[in-house]
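Entry 12.
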Amino acid sequence: MAKQRAPHLVVFTGAGISAESGIQTFRASDGLWADHAIEDVATPEAWRRDPGRVLRFYDQRRDQVRRARPNSAHQALASLEQQGFRVSIVTQNIDDLHERAGSRQVLHLHGEILKARSSIDPRMHYPLPRGGIALGDLCDKGSQLRPDVVWFGEAVPHFVEACEIAAEADLLLVVGTSLAVMPAALLLDHAPLDAPCVLVDPDAQMLAPPGVARLSQSAGQGVPALVGHWQREGRLWLPETLLG
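Predicted 3D structure (tokens):
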């Protein structure tokens, strides 16, 4: 007997969707990352060498996230869920813009900037509704708190869970990512063979792997357009008039 459930859209988002809300990516030529080498602020070695510098950098990033607002792509995905579609979001982004737009099923592969965690026990997390992290701020086990983000060279703790989500997709929507960051880019390999996949990105023609449909638009344009079609039809499909 066929399973009876709402259609399941799995959305994989990258820095491109957040950039439209004003959050700079580390590949950008301006903004916070322009004045900081990755090796100085986003590696375990940097943390051991100069934790104060790392904390100051992430305090700046946190302030940037708090000033940002969800854009039309975030809002469209949330509205689809509110209409009754099953929507699971797996994001490389460390901001909370999906949640602020109203999405409820969001998995952060690379952590969350608005949380701190213990530097000796990664299971211990602390919300940061305001302010930042200072040297001397300790977890309940007495260790220095650090940003709850995955640095370059660290394992991605939720990757297996993300693969399990991708394996349940009826359609996979990839938004604003170059599909170059490992292991996150491997998520596409875990989607069912019969599940269509579409990449929404201004450079989709160049970035999309074979077999992936292309929508060469910004997240703020392409995602609301797709969501509008799905809402009108009550099903997940790839309209040929939008793709190419």
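Annotation: The longest helix spans residues 51-67. The mean pLDDT is 89.
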